[in-house]
Structures are given as C-alpha cells and as structure tokens.
Specification:
The protein is mainly α. It has two domains: about 75-275 and about 400-425, Citrate Synthase, domain 1 (Orthogonal Bundle); about 280-395, Cytochrome P450-Terp, domain 2 (Cytochrome p450-Terp, domain 2, Orthogonal Bundle), CATH 1.10.230. It is built from 18 helices and three strands. Helix 10 (about 225-235) runs antiparallel to helix 15 (about 335-350) and helix 14 (about 300-310) crosses helix 16 (about 355-375).
C-alpha cells in the first residue's frame, strides 16, 4: 500500500502539472466533450443505425421539437405498438433490425431467436473461469471481464476482422450477456454476501426478458406484465445513435483494428460511468432522499420547495441537478420516458406502488419549471428515460447491482451493429487533435536538480 503522505505530495504535483486554464479552451475554440457552443454535438461521423431527434436547426438556432427515436429509420414507437397489438416480446426482433437493417420475416425471426437462445448457455469452463473463480464487486466490470474471456474461448481466429467473424462473435456476445449478468450477480451475492449460490440454466425458448427474470429470481417465476415491462425497457435502451459515449467508444476502438471482444468490453466500461449508464441509480437515491425529508411528498407545494433546495444545492448530492430531468438532445419530450411511463403505471397498479409512481410523475410535472426559474437561460427540460427505469427495475425486484448491467445487455446489440458499420466502411483510425499549451524547455541533469 502506498503511503498517504507520499500520495498527497505527488497528487499536488499532478494537479499542478495537469491543470489547464479554462480560458485556453475558449481561446483555441476547443469543442469540449465534442459539443458545439449551442450544446449540439460536433459532427464526427455518419450512421444508418439509429437517430435521436429532439430539435431542429433554424438559421443556426436550435428549435425544440417533441423527441423521436428511430431504429434503422423506423420510429421506435411503431415497433413498441406492434408488439403491444400482437401480444409478443419484441427485443429479439429489434436486435435483428439493428444488426441487419431490416425487419425479419416470421421464419427469420424464429431462426434468429433459436440462434440467440443457443448462445445463452455458458460452458462450465467459461462459467468457472470468467465468473465464479473471481467473484466481482461490480457487475459491469464482471461483464467486461467475461467478454474479454470470450476471446480465449473463441474457436476461430478472435482477431479476424471479417464481417463474417464479427457477426459470429456478436451473436455469441448478445446471447451470452444476459446469462453472464445474472450469474455474476449470483456469484457476488454468494461469495461476498453469503447468500446461496443459485445458477439456473437459461431457457433457449424464452425471450431475453423472461430469461433475465427467471435467472435472477430465487423461484424463477414472473408475471406476463413483468416480462413485458422488462422487454420494453430492453427495446428502449437498445440503441441511441452513434454519438452516445459508449457507442462512440465502439467506433473509436474498432477504428484501431482491435478485436470484437475488446471493442465491446471498452463500451461496457464506458457505460459503467455515472454520467452515462448509472443515472437511474441516482434517480432512485434522489427519490429515497425526498421520501426521507419531505413529510408529504405528494403535496405539490412541499415537493416544490424541496426541489428548489435541490436546484440551489442545499439538498440532494450538491450538484444542483434533479436527476431524471434533462437530456443532451431531447428537449420537449423523451419518447423512451413516455413509453416506459405508460407501462410503469400498469406495473405500479399490479404491485400496489401507485404512490411511488405518482411521486415521479409529480417530479416530472414540477421539476422543469423549478429549473427554469432558477436558471432562466436553461433550455427546455423534459423527463428522460432514467426517471422511470430505476423505479421499473425496483418494482421488478431486480437488484440495484443489475440496473446498469441490464442497460449493457440491451445496448450490446447496438455496439455490435456500430462495430460492423465501422468495419464495412473502413474509415481511418479515429484520432482527434489535442493542442499542446506548454513551451519547450531544456532537460536538467539529475545532479543539478
């Protein structure tokens, strides 16, 4: 263990050496976070996979519009509505669409489901080496490690960059990740928390959502509404354009000609970050704090006063953020939040959690006005999908350790699609520029220092 005294001394040097005056970013026109001054993303690529639409540009000015999300040009609302009409699970069809650019026929969908289903079962050697021998403290790290282990268990050439090999590897990853996530949680709960180790075999005939519920629950049982709700959450988290942090990571790593497993593992670890995939946990912590500090949180006046304290950094985590509100692209509405909210209402009724649902809807109704009053220059603010996704997972009795991993399970198909898009188009290695702001200086001999 490195001494605290040494660390404190050296950290001071690091901070001094690495500090950059914010004025330099303005002076040289640096697009921090690859964002333009108006908040829009810097255009760095083209994609045929997905599109997030929340505003229009009118003579250089952003004009807010109701949010839209398209998968291969198809409005995700139409996908969800079709699933509802036909009373079926839709994540597998969505995965097919994202990977292959077209909706499957009935026969193709059956074939695809069988293929994914057969990839869900993990071999004993893989299960023991990738998961059980080193129980994880964090499931996201366990997912990344397991994907990297798949490199060693690849029967072909894991470094082969052909589309054929990439597709084969993608199917294995997409199929295995739900099982890996469930087993990693069970291993953590057993080895670190003393719970019984329960590793049920996945069912290749069941949907991804059904398998997740079956593998994570002690009795393996679930209702149809529970499975439908989780299936919807998987669909809504499956893709969000090429510019989101984890999908952009996919493009960056793929552009270096690295292997599929390294690319997906890097994207998983990008998603792990609290600014990306962990937001629903922050919503749940915020909600718990409101319930603890507001005697009647469904009283709009009392809730409003507390939200003002949150925005003023006198409550909450001190950031001034009301989690679950606001998005980099969506302004008037987030279509994912709207669709998940509808399903959450039905689930809340089944679970007797109407008060919890009412609180989130009240936050959605009141929060934007609170933010705008304190920050008059703020753009339109709407509820994002994280406002409801954590509550949905809680009602489904999904452990908090699995909230972000389920995001990764859903998004894995998109990462694989973006990887193949990068490979098909054969672009150069992604290498943006960083401008040095130091001046050359002479080397000083050790004896003279």
């Amino acid at each position: 263990m490195i001494s605290e005294k040494w660390l404190k001394k050296q950290v001071a040097k690091v901070r001094k050496a690495d500090y950059i005056d914010p004025a330099f970013y303005r002076k040289f026109g640096v697009k921090r976070g690859l964002r333009n001054d108006n908040g829009t993303g810097v255009l760095v690529g083209l994609t045929t996979i997905g599109n997030v639409h929340g505003y229009m540009m009118n003579e250089g000015e952003k004009q807010a519009i109701p949010g839209e999300l398209f998968y291969r040009g198809i409005d995700v609302r139409d996908i969800v509505e079709a699933d509802k009409r036909e009373h079926r699970f839709g994540y597998e069809e969505t995965a097919y669409l994202l990977l292959f650019g077209e909706l499957p026929t009935a026969r193709q969908l059956v074939e695809w489901k069988n293929l994914i289903g057969s990839a869900r079962k993990l071999s004993d050697g893989f299960k023991e080496n990738a998961i059980l021998h080193n129980p994880p403290r964090d499931i996201m790290n366990a997912l990344a490690r397991a994907v990297l282990f798949m490199y060693a268990f690849d029967d072909g050439d894991p470094d082969d960059l052909s589309i054929e090999r990439c597709l084969d590897q993608s199917v294995q990853i997409i199929g295995a990740l739900p099982t890996v996530a469930a087993y990693a949680y069970q291993a953590k709960n057993h080895y670190l928390n003393g719970a019984s180790l329960m590793l049920r075999n996945p069912d290749p005939k069941k949907s991804t959502a059904e398998n997740i519920l079956m593998l994570t629950r002690e009795d393996g049982r679930y209702t149809r509404l529970e499975a439908e709700t989780l299936d919807l959450a998987l669909i809504l988290h499956a893709e969000h354009g090429g510019g989101n942090n984890s999908s952009f990571t996919t493009h960056v790593v793929t552009s270096s000609s690295s292997d599929t497993y390294s690319s997906v593992a890097a994207s998983i670890l990008s998603l792990k970050g609290g600014r990306h995939g962990g937001a629903n946990l922050r919503v749940m912590r915020q909600t718990a704090e409101i319930l603890e500090n507001v005697k009647n949180p469904l009283n709009s006046e009392k809730l409003g006063k507390y939200l003002v304290k949150v925005v003023d950094k006198k409550a909450g985590d001190g950031t001034g953020l009301i989690y679950g509100l606001g998005h980099a692209v969506y302004t008037i509405s987030d279509p994912r939040a709207q669709m998940l909210k509808e399903k959450a209402r039905a689930l809340a009724k089944e679970k007797g959690r109407e008060d919890g649902m009412a609180l989130l809807e009240l936050i959605e109704a009141m929060g934007p006005a609170v933010i705008r009053r304190r920050h008059p220059s703020a753009e339109d603010v709407c509820a994002n999908v994280d406002l409801y996704s954590g509550f949905v997972y809680e009602m489904l009795d999904i452990p908090k350790d699995l909230y972000t991993p389920l995001f990764a399970v859903a998004r894995s198909v998109s990462w694989c699609a973006h990887r193949m898009e990068e490979l098909v188009n054969g672009g150069p290695i992604i290498r943006p520029a960083y401008k040095p702001i130091f001046h050359p200086r002479p080397y000083v001999n050790l004896t003279d220092r």
